[in-house]
Design brief:
By secondary structure, the protein is an alpha+beta fold. It has 2 domains: about 5-170 and about 360-370, Diaminopimelate Epimerase, Chain A, domain 1 (Roll); about 185-345, Diaminopimelate Epimerase, Chain A, domain 1, CATH 3.10.310. It is built from 6 helices and 21 strands. It has helices spanning about 35-40, 95-110, 225-245, 250-255, 300-310, 320; strands at about 5-15, 15-20, 60-65, 75-80, 90, 120-125, 130-140, 140-145, 160-165, 185, 195-200, 205-210, 260-265, 270, 280, 285-290, 295, 330-335, 340-345, 350-360, 360-370. It has a 19-stranded mixed sheet that branches. Strands 14-15 form a two-stranded antiparallel sheet. A hairpin with a 7-residue loop joins strand 10 and strand 11.
């Protein structure tokens, strides 16, 4: 069996990790990428023992970067979510956490000139056709990694990266609310109907109330041991995918792993994080939990965070009904690992102009990843 090696940089971005590739180092025939990325991660295998994957969705990711030809961007970036126990590679969504690694990657790899003390990297995300703006601290021509910024879900501190998702709505469907409604009832085969908010911002998202499926909203990854509740989440997500026009049928959404992210929300409340820390209700605007690739996330996907925070400022949505109305532009999301703060700015028409948040990132390893062909 032949073995081929590919130049690769392994990075943490926010609460996720990914294998980062220059597009020029990959096969020119993109139809080969799916099989390649499955082998890189060691999928399908719940342990991903023969690849770089870390057995959870946040560590089974790929980023591909190239110089951009666009006048409004420095680099183009394509994200791939590699499933774990199924041979699925989803390229129809972005990852806000891995996005934060793109700016430092671009600077350190010489794709963007380093300008001290802060280099602004304009990133075009090809999955969503949206511009991300990353403000990266630099020193001596390299992105800084050491600093005092701390983000929930990551031990220690790092150099602050200010992320801005510019005009993030309509990323997949061209509309903030694909059906035109801010709340509506979905009929779910084999389950009771449920009221949802379907919102396309950064990524397509479907929001539900925790109480509507018998949850308090304080739960987190223990739910991953409950196949019945996971099946319920997946059916809601799949039906929403069809309703939003992302798939022809809800069955296709499940078979191919495409469609919206899903989150279950509740009012601000006291809860204990995965690390055992007590989070008080007065510290948050609302309480939220998210799923990715069929599992409850250990923190909160940043693209889902962007959508949640944005929806908190749009009257009539489920996130809005739970939000403390005195939050102003700042929305504090209480998730399984703690609190993440978002700055949501509206334009003169009341549409979402940009959503900002802070991440940290660092290079973990560089070299070659070896793939059996």
């Amino acid at each position: 069996m032949a073995v081929r090696k590919y130049p690769c940089i392994y990075m943490r971005g926010g609460t996720s990790k990914a294998c980062m590739f220059h597009e020029k180092d990959l096969p020119s025939d993109r139809s080969q990428w799916k099989d390649l990325f499955l082998k890189v991660m060691g999928t399908p295998d719940p342990k991903q023992i023969d690849g770089m994957g870390g057995t959870v969705s946040s560590t089974s990711k790929i980023a591909v970067i190239r110089p951009s030809d666009r006048p409004d961007a420095d680099v183009d970036y394509t994200f791939f979510q590699v499933f774990i126990d199924r041979p699925i590679v989803n390229d129809r969504m972005n990852c806000g956490n891995i996005s934060s690694a793109v700016g430092p990657f671009a600077i350190n790899e010489g794709l963007v000139k380093a300008i001290e003390p802060v280099t602004v990297v304009r990133v075009f995300n090809t999955n969503t056709s949206k511009i991300l703006e990353e403000h990266v601290r630099v020193k001596d021509g390299m992105a800084l990694e050491e600093g005092t910024a701390q983000i929930q879900g990551v031990p220690g501190t790092g150099s602050e990266i200010n992320m801005f998702f510019m005009h993030p709505t309509g990323a997949a469907t061209g509309k903030a609310f694909p059906t035109g409604d801010r709340k509506e009832i979905l009929d779910i085969p084999d389950y009771d109907p449920i009221e949802v908010t379907m919102f396309d911002c950064s990524n397509p998202v479907v929001f539900i109330r925790a109480k509507d499926i018998g949850l308090s909203g304080k739960e987190h990854i223990a739910l991953n041991n409950d196949p019945e509740i996971l099946a319920h989440f997946e059916r809601i997500r799949a039906v929403a995918a069809e309703k939003m026009g992302l798939t022809a049928t809800w069955q296709e959404a499940t078979e191919k792993g495409i469609g919206p992210l899903i989150a279950f929300l509740s009012p601000a409340q006291d809860y204990t994080t995965l690390d055992g820390d007590l989070i008080r209700e007065e510290k948050m605007s609302l309480c939220c939990r998210g799923l990715n690739a069929g599992k409850v996330h250990r923190a909160y996907p940043m693209s889902l965070g962007v959508a949640t925070a944005a929806a908190c400022r749009l009257e009539g949505t489920i996130p809005w009904e739970f939000t403390k109305k005195d939050c102003g532009t700042i929305v504090d999301l209480g998730h399984a690992s703690g609190i993440t703060t978002f700055d949501v700015r509206l334009d003169e028409k009341g549409d979402i102009e940009k959503v900002g948040f802070v991440r940290t990132a660092r290079r973990i390893m560089e070299g070659y990843v070896y793939v059996r062909e």
